[in-house]
């Protein structure tokens, strides 16, 4: 399999590579690496608060609008059901640039000061673009590699988790320490990536790969190397003053590490190329389907899961008539069957508690650091730590839960229970801070926040099938913005402002006496995070219900049908 390619074969191989599954996967990594701009809100939110004279409740309302846009992906899912992937990615690119560009214009004073509801719309539009990236890249990759979906989801969402730290290094190299310019960067860079790879990502026939999981562990190694470098360079930048050239050098290394999975993709496509030219041990004639550069076994009809078999003349009923006629777990549910399922509602409640509390913690991290007296550079490092450990949480939950399912038949929802219990520890450290404890809290909150998303997405794909996965996985995270609104805007923002007003009253001042309403001290966030701890613990108990309900299903071979329907190399 180590054979190279001749000069005359270079062009045909390049065309096959650019149209193959492995290059599409690499392109998905890049798109997802640019789809996490919402996690940088803690970095630039203070600029919005200062330049537009917002109090904490108003800023948290913006944070909720961001979370609403980032998690209401039903529209992108429904659009993906009826349009090609390239259209989904283009719409996402337009929304990303349009939303964040308007915020940048407002913060830099290039347009008249927008009303609060207008800013909410701008940030909602910009954040909603990541759903189009998720639907275009993530859903397509899961369908292309169905047997490795846990690892796949962990990797893809892991790159999203790292995107905050990646874009921070790029913005420091290009714009310097100007957080207003960061808003401009997260407007144009993710949009440009989606446009460049718009025709690369599409659904292809799954092909049985003898060492697929080994390849994914190699991708994992590359991503961990990137994460470790980002963590080291982020901590170094807090201890040492970097020059413009040093920032440029760090950004260059980051870009090289982001592109390193390309070499693995080239090697795997070269394996396919050599197998097509020199089939080994195969009794059947092997031909190449020119429309998709994967190997196709002749004289064999392959039916995808969820697609009707030849000669099957079964008439489909209306989706409204089949709501109560639910299939077995793992089969393809219709959208209404899934949305009215008790399993989906239990998952919805656990997501409401878990992700709602996590989003609240992440959005307020900058203000938490400020209230505890940490300098601005240190607060920025907290945000970067959340981004990096967000990545570790995502890949850990994806790969570890996949291993536990395949080897030990452990239900994936049990992993979610453990993650939510871990998050409770992080919230307690914020509620009762000690010197330096916010560093530990940032790591725990980032890790537990990141770990939840791949688990939720994988559980939905396993319980309700892949036929309508584009819509269902977006429906599954609708609970997140609802939880964010209640816990962030109505709870945390309100209690923070109340404590800040008490501090003003002690000084004999009124709200009109100060430009920004700021609270300093450990009491500012104590009560909100005590409440978040209990809410998250309730979410962990709720997820245990799903563990009990699905334990028999996860004891079975949940990937059997995908092995039977995939082609082999």
Automatic annotation (TrEMBL):
Domain of life: Eukaryota
Pfam families: NFD4_C (PF23262), Nodulin-like (PF06813)
Database matches in InterPro entries: MFS_trans_sf, NFD4_C, Nodulin-like
Organism: Gossypium davidsonii
Cellular compartment(s): Membrane
Domain Nodulin-like: 21-266
Keywords for the protein's UniProt record, in alphabetical order: Membrane, Transmembrane, Transmembrane helix
Membrane topology designation: Multi-pass membrane protein
GO cellular component: membrane
Protein's UniProt name: Nodulin-like domain-containing protein
Location of the NFD4 C-terminal domain: 338-554
Transmembrane segments: 21-42, 86-107, 158-176, 182-201, 213-233, 245-266, 344-362, 413-432, 438-461, 527-548
């Amino acid at each position: 399999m180590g054979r190279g390619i001749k000069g005359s074969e270079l062009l045909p191989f390049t065309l096959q590579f650019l149209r193959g599954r492995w290059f599409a996967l690499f392109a998905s990594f890049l798109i997802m690496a640019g789809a996490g701009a919402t996690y940088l809100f803690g970095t630039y939110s203070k600029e919005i608060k200062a330049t537009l004279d917002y109090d904490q409740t108003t800023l948290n309302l913006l944070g909720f609008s961001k979370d609403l846009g980032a998690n209401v992906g039903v529209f992108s899912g429904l659009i993906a059901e009826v349009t090609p992937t390239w259209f989904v990615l283009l719409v996402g690119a337009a929304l990303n640039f349009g939303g964040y560009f308007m915020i940048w214009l407002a913060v830099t004073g290039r347009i008249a000061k927008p009303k609060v509801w207008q800013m909410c719309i701008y940030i909602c539009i910009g954040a909603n673009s990541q759903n189009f990236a998720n639907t275009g890249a993530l859903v397509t990759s899961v369908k292309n590699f169905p047997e490795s979906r846990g690892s796949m989801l962990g990797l893809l969402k892991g790159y999203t988790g790292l995107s905050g730290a990646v874009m921070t290094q790029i913005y420091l190299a290009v714009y310097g320490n100007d957080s207003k310019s960061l808003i401009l960067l997260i407007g144009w860079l993710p949009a440009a990536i989606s446009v460049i790879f718009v025709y690369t990502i599409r659904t292809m026939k799954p092909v049985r790969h003898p060492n697929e999981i080994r390849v994914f562990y190699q991708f994992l190694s590359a991503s961990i190397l990137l994460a470790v470098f980002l963590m080291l360079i982020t901590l170094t930048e807090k201890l040492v003053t970097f020059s413009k050239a040093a920032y440029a050098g760090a950004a260059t290394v980051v870009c090289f590490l982001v592109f390193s999975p390309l070499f693995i993709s080239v090697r795997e496509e070269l394996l396919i190329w050599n197998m097509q030219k020199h089939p080994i041990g195969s009794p059947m004639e092997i031909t190449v389907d020119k429309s998709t550069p994967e190997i196709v076994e002749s004289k064999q009809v392959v039916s995808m899961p969820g697609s009707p078999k030849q000669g099957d003349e079964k008439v489909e009923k209306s989706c409204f008539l089949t709501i109560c006629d639910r299939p077995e777990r793992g089969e393809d549910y219709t959208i209404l069957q899934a949305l009215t399922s008790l399993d989906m509602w239990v998952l919805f409640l656990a997501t409401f508690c878990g992700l709602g509390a996590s989003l609240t913690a992440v959005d307020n991290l900058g203000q938490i650091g400020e209230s505890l007296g940490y300098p601005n550079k240190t607060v920025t490092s907290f945000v970067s730590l959340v981004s990096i450990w967000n990545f570790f949480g995502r890949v850990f939950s994806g790969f570890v839960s996949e291993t536990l399912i395949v080897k030990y038949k452990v239900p994936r929802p049990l992993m979610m229970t453990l993650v939510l219990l871990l998050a409770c520890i992080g919230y307690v450290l914020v509620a009762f801070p000690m010197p330096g404890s916010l560093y530990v809290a940032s790591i725990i909150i980032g890790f537990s926040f990141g770990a939840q998303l791949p688990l939720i997405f994988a559980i939905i794909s396993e319980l309700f099938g892949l036929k309508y996965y584009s819509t269902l996985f977006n429906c599954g995270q609708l609970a997140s913005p609802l939880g964010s609104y209640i816990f962030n805007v109505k709870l945390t923002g309100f209690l923070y402002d109340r404590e800040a007003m008490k501090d003003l009253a002690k000084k004999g001042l009124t709200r009109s006496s100060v430009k920004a309403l700021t609270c300093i001290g450990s009491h500012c966030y104590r009560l909100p995070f005590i409440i978040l701890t209990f809410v998250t613990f309730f979410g962990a108990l709720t997820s245990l219900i799903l563990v009990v309900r699905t334990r028999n299903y996860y004891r079975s071979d949940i990937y059997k049908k995908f092995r039977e329907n995939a082609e082999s190399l």
